[in-house]
Amino acid sequence: MRQRLRKELRLNQPVIAVLLPCYNEDAAIGLTVAGFRAALPGAAIYVYDNNSSDRTVEVAREAGAIVRTERIQGKGAVVRRMFADIDADIYVMADGDATYDAASAPKLVARMLEEQLDMVVGSRVGEAAAAYRRGHRFGNAMLTGMLTRLFGRSFSDILTGYRVFSRRFVKSFPVLSVGFEIETEISVHALELKMPVAEIETPYFARPEGSVSKLSTYRDGWRILGTIATLYRIERPLWFFGAFGAALLALAIILAIPLAVTYAQTGLVPRFPTAILVTGLTILAALCAFAGLILDTVVRGRREVRRLAYLAHRAPGG
Fold first, then answer.
1. Please, which residues have CB within 8 angstroms of residue 54's CB and are 6 or more apart in sequence?
2. At residue 208, does pLDDT exceed 70?
3. pLDDT value at position 210?
4. Mean pLDDT of the chain
5. pTM, whole model, 2 decimals?
6. In which element (H, E) is residue 143 found?
7. CA atoms of 41 and 53, how far apart (whole Å)
8. Around Cβ 29, how many Cβ atoms within 10 Å?
9. In Å, what is the CA distance from 279 to each residue of 201, 248, 255?
10. Backbone phi, psi, residue 302, to 5°
11. Under a CB-based contact definition with an 8 Å cutoff, are residues 190 and 197 in contact?
12. Distances 111 to 6, 106, 119 between C-alpha atoms, Å
């Protein structure tokens, strides 16, 4: 009877954790913590410092946050640590730069509970011209198109850091990214397992004075391109390696046509180096095809393991 009562109380009052990864955000973290404390009074607010050299830790503690540290540099490493350490029913993740609208958090959480979703994405609507860079818009559009081709569906804002997760999402997500590619990996995890998700537009503000962005349009643009290539190789190995195999086979056929014509006319193969090259290209094409087939089977097995880990936890509000 006591266990049943405890379960009912747990269902009626889900444990909410606000997760804020931070690196040198002393100018904004106080505002961020205060905003989420006002929006979600019953939530525990965690600030994970990632080797800041300013007063981020002190300001976060003064604002009332629970401060922890992750020594491995990179947002992906911080998210991996947060997801492993924190135990909650609902996880609200945002950046510590005061650019995301904390007042929208109750709406995101309510949508998750009402529809028993596993992730609600806060897609950004820029409130200032400087808030959302053009280079990041371009990268966002590229990734969105890529994920749509891979999975048949996507989100309008792949790179947003404002998301609400269910427990079963967090505890079934093996974080592999190190840096800012983590947002892409999060989206892929949800799409790969066909999780119920939703997207809600939220205001996106410019950073407060004194706060500096850690993103670089060109450097992170290359990271995005690398993420796209890696994503395609990991999630669609048959198509990835099959494309290489098809290209090698096509080249082998083009080189072999003159040899076949000469052989048909004279019965001789005078260009042995070309014949050897054609043979090698054909073997490589076959190896690519078999590698794609084998890795496709591995990916399917990995997806099944993730799905089982996901199903081990109950739905939010369920």
1. 24, 25, 26
2. yes
3. 63
4. 85
5. 0.81
6. helix 134-151
7. 30
8. 32
9. 56, 11, 10
10. -65, -40
11. yes
12. 24, 9, 10
